[in-house]
């Protein structure tokens, strides 16, 4: 099994990514660290517990990390994910403890284990802080996957910026420039192709599981948002692709490149991918550009509804 920390800001699609990770036998999830992004971190941590509860995995610790971006003011995405971050279902709090000290948890886990990977599904604030505090700990890092950025595609926060890097552009840029390992950039170029449609929701509900009910509930608001804002029927679920790609490399293709993130001005949050190698810098990233979306969806449904033979 591969040991992973999931750093996240749940978030509807973060919640779905957690479900996928916990239903994947290849992974040993050592803990969830939460940062502010879609919602403030304290709210995100509650949503993380809810996802763990859905998988009966409340043994996995949930840590709150940084509650504010490094330099910018926090701007959440409660218009997209709902006031509560999970589609305005206002679930009761799960009866489990939320821990503090997410940044130290990341550092200690890296120090005490060999070959831990991190899958980051939110702004990179916790990771940036952890590198600032103890860069050496990252020598033990196996792989780093970041859902974020946009290469040849329109942004989702500005014409050029993707949400996670836009929320904390200083954090994102710091991680790109200081992480001693290559970053697998799972950006909008690939994640925008992952759409959970009402058809799929209808299908999973035939399986008549608590899980289908939960997924239907949390995605309803998100589906309405996509219809109203973009005229899309269904919702784009970005974060689960980062987990799926970590497990199965054949799902996506990309190329090595140097990447940095703009922190100020009109292009704030933009990921600058030097695909022509103008700067002659060593590549610090593997930027994904292609995805087999059907294979992803099959994997996602098969794993989450694993007991059902017809999936
Ligand atoms: C990213 O932003 C958030 O709203 C999602 O959870 C995802 O991580 C997509 O831009
Ligand atoms: Ca997220």
TrEMBL record:
GO terms for cellular component: cytosol. It holds the Pfam family IU_nuc_hydro. Keywords: Glycosidase, Hydrolase. InterPro entries: Inosine/uridine_hydrolase_dom (IPR001910), IUNH (IPR023186), Ribo_hydro-like (IPR036452). The keyword Flavoprotein does not apply. GO terms for biological process: purine nucleoside catabolic process. Residues 4-297 form the Inosine/uridine-preferring nucleoside hydrolase domain. GO terms for molecular function: purine nucleosidase activity. This is Pyrimidine-specific ribonucleoside hydrolase RihA. It comes from Romboutsia ilealis. The lineage of its organism: Bacteria, Bacillati, Bacillota, Clostridia, Peptostreptococcales.
């Amino acid at each position: 099994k591969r040991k992973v920390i999931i750093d996240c800001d749940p978030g509807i699609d973060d919640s779905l990514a957690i479900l996928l990770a916990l239903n994947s036998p290849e992974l040993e999830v050592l803990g969830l660290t939460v940062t502010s992004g879609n919602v403030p971190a304290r709210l995100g941590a509650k949503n993380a517990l809810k996802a763990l509860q859905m998988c009966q995995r409340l043994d996995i610790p949930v840590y709150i990390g940084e509650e504010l971006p490094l330099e910018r003011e926090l701007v959440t995405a409660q218009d997209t994910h709902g006031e509560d971050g999970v589609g305005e279902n206002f679930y009761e709090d799960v009866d489990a403890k939320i821990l503090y000290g997410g940044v130290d948890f990341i550092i200690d886990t890296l120090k005490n284990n060999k070959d831990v990977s991190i899958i980051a599904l939110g702004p990179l604030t916790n990771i940036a802080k952890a590198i600032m505090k103890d860069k050496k700990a990252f020598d033990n890092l196996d792989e780093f996957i970041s859902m974020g950025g946009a290469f040849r595609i329109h942004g989702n926060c500005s014409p050029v910026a993707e949400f996670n890097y836009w929320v904390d552009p200083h954090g994102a840029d710091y991680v790109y420039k200081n992480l001693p390992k290559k970053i697998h950039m799972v950006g909008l170029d690939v994640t925008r192709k992952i759409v959970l449609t009402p058809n799929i929701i209808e299908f999973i509900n035939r399986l008549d599981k608590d899980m289908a009910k939960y997924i239907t509930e949390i995605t309803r608001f998100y589906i309405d948002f996509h219809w109203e804002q973009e005229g899309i029927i269904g919702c784009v679920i970005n974060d689960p692709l980062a987990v799926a790609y970590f497990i199965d490399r054949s799902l996506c293709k990309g190329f090595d490149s140097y990447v940095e993130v703009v922190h100020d001005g009109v292009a704030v949050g933009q990921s600058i991918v030097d695909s022509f190698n103008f700067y002659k810098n060593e590549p610090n990233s593997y930027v994904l550009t292609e995805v087999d979306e059907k294979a992803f969806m099959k994997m996602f449904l098969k794993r989450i509804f694993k007991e059902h033979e017809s999936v």
